[in-house]
């Protein structure tokens, strides 16, 4: 059985993982970080270039892409990155540059838990989330980290 489904919200359509509490609330039309939404509405316009580091499944990416010139979206978690890209396609957004990289203050390698099940943490209420998984600096890690000014020239 697939844990993924597409949910329509007032700020876009999203492929969500039903096991993830944050993704479920996005799918239930809850825009997170309302203070950021107010900031986006006030300062982002058609000439803006937005950088979203830790873009998650693209809630802010999709919202801003409809208003601005270009969005650079960085998400190092491979499974979440695949959802981010799916959400950009589902919403027919064409002004987003995505990258499956970590943004860091120097060139580095990182690791995440190897298996999908380990990406999700069990909280006190028995719900799961992939948000907030921590990168571990690891010389042999598969995730590459770059300084932002190295990536965007």
Features:
153 residues, alpha/beta, four-stranded mixed sheet, three-stranded parallel sheet, 29% helix
How would you sum up this structure, described in words?
The chain is an alpha/beta fold and 153 residues long. 29% of the residues lie in helices and 27% in strands. It has six helices and eleven strands. It has helices spanning 21-27, 34-43, 59-65, 78-90, 116-119, 148-151, and strands at 4-9, 12-17, 49-53, 70-74, 96-99, 102-103, 108-111, 121-122, 128-129, 136-137, 143-146. A four-stranded mixed sheet has the order 6-11-7-10. A three-stranded parallel sheet has the order 3-4-5, with helices on one face. The protein is globular and about 40 Å long. The protein starts with a strand and ends with a helix. Residues 122-128 have low confidence and may be disordered.
> What is the spatial order of strands in the main beta sheet?
6-11-7-10
SSE topology string? EEHHEHEHEEEHEEEEH
Measured between the Cα atoms of the first and last residue, the distance is: 43 Å
Number of helices: 6
In what range is the share of β-strand residues? 25-35%
**Helix-strand category:** alpha/beta
User: What would the principal axes of the Cα set say about the shape?
Assistant: globular
* Major β-sheet annotation: 4 strands, mixed
User: Which segments are poorly predicted (pLDDT under 50) over 5 or more consecutive residues?
Assistant: 122-128
Average pLDDT value?
Answer: 85
Structure summary, number of beta strands: 11
How big is the Rg? 16 Å
Estimated helix fraction: 25-40%
